[in-house]
Design brief:
CATH class of the largest domain: Alpha Beta
Largest sheet: 6 strands, parallel
Radius of gyration: 26 Å
Shape: elongated
CATH architecture of the largest domain: 3-Layer(aba) Sandwich
Structural class: alpha/beta
Order of helices and strands: EHEHEHEHEHEHHHHHH
Amino acid sequence: MLRILIVDDHEVVRLGLRALLERHPDFTVVDEAGTAREALQKALLHRPDVVVMDVRMPGRSGIEACRSITEKLPDCKVVMLTSYAEDDLLFDAISAGACGYVLKQIGSDDLTRAIETVGRGEAMLDPAVTRRVFDRVREAARQENAAAFSNLTEQELRVLSHVSEGKTNREIAEALFLGEGTVRNYVSSILGKLELTNRAEAAAYAVEHNIREYVRSLDG
């Protein structure tokens, strides 16, 4: 039996959620709250398994309440409900400890499944926002890789890409139509800029930061 606390500043929404959730044979609604402060008080009182929390409330937000509840009750799972698929709210909620994030437009069956999922200790994201999460993670990784090579010129990047493949200076020179001495100078410059001591370190650094993908993006 999952013990649930409903938090929303609109009484009609709370009543609707209670009516929906209490139809589930494995759910029991232990209480309701209309503010973030009341949510924390009632969470500490009832120690529910799951809190269904509105993101936007007057005064302290649902995200702040989520953070307070998960800090004081680490076994309590919070599902955030919102009307808007806003990136900042989504990531703020995840950072605050929310295990679920669903839009209010979700169907009743999907909402109960989301609560069941979170109650089992799993994470649950509304399908409408899942792609946005992956896009943001990929973009963060791309920016991190770009920062890792920000001091290098495009030619140095191409030389480093070949170094990561274990090629000799002669092989790199042939591939890039450069003189072997020029390649040697590029390698020396790369090591200096990246504060590395040898080709093996440079190769490992390049692979770690996905240099091949980054060079492909430059070539467009």
